[in-house]
Amino acid sequence: MLSLQDWSRILTEARELGVERLDISGGEPTLYKYLTNLIQIGREYGWHVGVNTNGSLIDQAYAESLLRAGVNTICVSLYSPHPAVHDAMRRSRNLWHKATNAIRILRAMERRFPDFRVVTQTILCRENHESFADLLELHYRLGSHSLGIAYLEGDFDRQYLLNEDEIRHFRKYVIPKVLEFTDKLSSGSRKHARRILHEMFSEDILTISEWASGHYRPRHKNLPPCRRPMEFAIVLANGDVHPCNMVEYTHRPVMGNVFAQSLTEVWNSEKWNTFRVDLFDGCTSCPINLYMGISL
């Protein structure tokens, strides 16, 4: 596994390559004992530094250490307004209470750390689509500044994707409830949120069958090139370098490993340049270009 010294070397290379943002995710990044060190390195380089967490380890003291290290945003995952549903989705007991408590703690600390913001994220799937309006209300009440909403990825067996009838039900009955919630938002946020909500599972974007199959980027659509592998890289703790989010689920193709090559060599390799042009068959199941954000 990469040591702190290894990470320091990699981040120095990333700065030389022109990186402007560092997002520390996982797994669960708060389990890493040198997390504050990584944050400090990123801030010393002038980057925006974000941490994505399930909130399980964030108490007052730990939150203070992260904010004093200079973290700009902490994104807490919260998938349901119902504790049992969220815990089942995350396969962890009592996680809903820990996540909601973490958001409250972080929100309260913004007064002392004016450059910091707490944000939240969720996924949209079979387990939570019926209560989606209540979920947005919860994120709003907890004080999140913005909510990221992602369509489900990596569900190749279609266990949790909405089926066609559930999608039609969501469009007809759930979205109107969510639109009522947007009346609480500022005028600018309300207009943007309503546009996003009207686009959810829209047949102007994909067919109902494509939505239900998780085919978010069908090749016949002749969509513009995905810029993700041109602007982004994931470096895993084992040294593997992924060119995009979807490779986290397909586990291929890996562009290289920073134990064997420098990050610069991997980034500029013929393999990666070919991937940027040709992409791969996993792209059809990738929803990253349909990611939604609502300011709360």
In brief, what are we looking at here?
With 296 residues, this protein is an alpha/beta fold. The protein has helices spanning 4-16, 35-44, 60-69, 83-90, 95-109, 132-142, 164-181, 187-199, 208-213, 228-231, 247-250, 263-267, 270-278, and strands at 21-24, 48-53, 73-77, 117-124, 146-151, 234-235, 240-242, 256-257, 292-295.
Approximate helicity band: 40-55%
Radius of gyration: 20 Å
Report the sheet-strand fraction: 5-15%
**Major sheet strand order:** 1-2-3-4-5-9
**Helix-strand category:** alpha/beta
Sheet of most strands: 6 strands, mixed
N-to-C series of helices and strands = HEHEHEHHEHEHHHHEEHEHHE
Distance between the termini: 38 Å
Name the poorly predicted regions: none
Q: Strand tally, please?
A: 9
Shape: globular
Features:
296 residues, alpha/beta, 14% strand
Give a structural overview.
43% of the residues lie in helices and 14% in strands. The protein has 296 residues and is an alpha/beta fold. The chain is built from 13 helices and nine strands. It has helices at residues 4-16, 35-44, 60-69, 83-90, 95-109, 132-142, 164-181, 187-199, 208-213, 228-231, 247-250, 263-267, 270-278; strands spanning 21-24, 48-53, 73-77, 117-124, 146-151, 234-235, 240-242, 256-257, 292-295. It is globular. The longest helix is centred in the middle third of the chain and has 18 residues, at 164-181. The protein has a six-stranded mixed beta sheet. A three-stranded antiparallel beta sheet has the order 6-7-8, with no helix packed on it. The mean pLDDT is 97. It starts with a helix and ends with a strand.
